[in-house]
Design brief:
With 460 residues, the protein is an alpha/beta fold. The chain is built from 10 helices and 16 strands. The strands form 4 sheets. The protein has a 5-stranded mixed sheet, with no helix packed on it. It has a 5-stranded mixed sheet with strand order 4-5-6-7-8, sandwiched between helices. The protein has a 4-stranded antiparallel sheet with strand order 9-16-11-14, with no helix packed on it. Helix 1 packs across helix 2 and helix 6 runs parallel beside helix 7. 30% of the residues are buried. About 12% of the residues have low confidence.
């Protein structure tokens, strides 16, 4: 029995707008403008807001307690606050202003310091509408209990002074940790994405250099705080702006709980971040989750608030790419996690995160054909990937004039998991027609196809 065949017809899009920097109060572009027709109509993102996804790796005995609702960020617009929330915000604001007026050394270590120079995260505490956004973070972290929020804010100022945070931001900390924690791209709502790759600590040299004594762990903490501070200062603290971060924690090959030094460093860092950086996580996605982490989470879950748990998403190794694509466009997902994004280099000059990609599910035992309609003489460039491959790929050009021959651009080629993750090809077109990109999935599992293309008109 021949496999079922599906065809997608796409008209070339207009050039998409680039994604905004995190300072802008906008959302990133979500998808390539597509016209898709097949037996089942398939649309690329935008999707509705994703629900919390829980994936269980191979050991089914470790179940994650599921949240009833997925976390949705609250508005920082005053008009959207409830009456009680508005009262709490005004009360906290008044308490801080009175403390400053009374020369409380927590906020004004220098009695002659003007109020306009009192700042946190590089933002003046009392200058404009950003004040409300800052204070709301502390209120939400303490469930709008004003006195508790005020104490948390004071303790944060004391800690920042003791840790010399404003000086730390500009320090040059030499380290080899750029692969352990890094920022890359934006999610579909415009949040910058921070990746934490714990498997890098399998490198014994890096582990020993970073974590094996208290002095090294303190240096690691300083670097992690500096990294976060620099990231926060790029956020937009205006009401309605993007002022949280999308966190991804990659647990592939992560050292287990038996690594005492890593456990100590992680505990210390988490305590500092929880106490002094409230409400900066938009979503926390754990990928490549091993069974032992699920067991650990199951033990800790009863001690977490529902608000905290609602921000968590878990994905097994087999579901990592699928999970990320629910929240992040594939053009923003790094290649190592199933996406198309690489750091710009000569090896990939055609596409960047500014070029949205389409996502299509290829059903088991089916062929999926993408048709790119060509309406002008041009050079067309495309990039294509099937996550995990184990499919066959072919490409051809079919002229509109039926008297002309179809041109094989790529004969059917079996692609395996060890092949190059992304195929990039181009073809010069001098007569109108269409490009056909065909994926033959002979397996019993659905596959995720990613692709994008550009049209470069030929000069006459």
């Amino acid at each position: 029995m021949s496999p079922e065949k599906e065809t997608l017809e796409i008209s070339p899009p207009s050039p998409p707008p680039p994604p905004p920097p995190p300072e802008m109060d906008q959302e990133t572009p979500l998808s390539l403008p597509l016209i898709l027709t097949s037996k089942e109509t398939i649309f690329s993102p935008p999707h509705p807001p994703p629900e919390q996804l829980t994936e269980n790796p191979e050991k089914p005995t470790n179940h994650i307690p599921q949240s009833m609702v997925s976390f949705k960020e609250e508005s920082n617009m005053i008009k959207d606050l409830s009456h009680l929330e508005t009262l709490s915000l005004n009360e906290l604001k008044l308490m801080v202003q009175e403390a400053i007026a009374n020369k409380d050394s927590t906020f004004t270590p220098n009695p002659d310091q003007p109020t306009s120079e009192i700042s946190i995260w590089g933002i003046p505490l009392f200058k404009d509408e950003r004040t409300d956004v800052i204070l709301l973070k502390f209120l939400r972290a303490r469930e709008f209990k004003v006195k508790d929020s005020f104490i948390m804010l004071k303790n944060t100022f004391l800690w920042r002074k003791a840790f010399s945070i404003d000086d730390l931001v500009d320090e040059n900390l030499n380290n080899d940790l750029e692969k352990v924690v890094f920022n890359h791209g934006f999610d579909k709502e415009g949040h910058p994405i921070c990746y934490n790759v714990y498997g890098e600590f399998q490198d014994k040299e890096l582990y020993n250099k970073t974590l094996t004594d208290e002095e090294k762990r303190t240096s690691f903490l300083k670097w992690r705080v500096q990294f976060l501070e620099r990231s926060i200062r790029k956020l937009d603290f205006r009401p309605g702006g993007v002022n949280t971060i999308f966190q991804v924690s990659d647990l592939k090959n992560s050292p287990g709980p038996g690594k005492r030094e890593l456990r100590l460093a992680t505990k210390q860092a988490l305590q500092v971040l929880q106490d002094n950086y409230p409400e900066f996580v938009a979503k926390q996605v754990f990928i490549n989750v091993p069974w032992w982490y699920l067991a650990f989470y199951s033990m800790m879950s009863p001690f977490m608030t529902q608000r905290t748990k609602s921000k968590f998403v878990f994905a097994s190794p087999a579901k990592t790419a699928e999970t990320l694509f629910k929240y992040v466009g594939p053009e923003h997902v790094p290649i190592q996690y199933g996406g198309l994004s690489v750091d710009y280099c000569d090896c990939n000059p055609e596409f960047t995160i500014d070029d949205p990609a389409a996502v299509v599910t290829v059903k088991p035992a089916t062929k999926q054909t993408v048709e790119i309609i060509v309406n002008e003489k041009c050079t067309i460039v495309w990039e294509l990937r099937v996550v995990g491959w184990e499919v066959s790929y072919s490409a051809e050009y079919v002229p509109n004039d039926e008297t002309n021959y179809t041109i094989n651009i790529q004969k059917p080629k079996k692609m395996t998991a060890i092949d190059e993750p992304v195929i990039s090809q181009s073809f010069k077109i001098k007569e109108l027609g269409k490009i056909l990109l065909t994926i033959d999935n002979p397996t019993s599992k659905k596959k995720t196809l990613l692709y994008r293309f550009k049209v470069d008109p030929l000069s006459e």
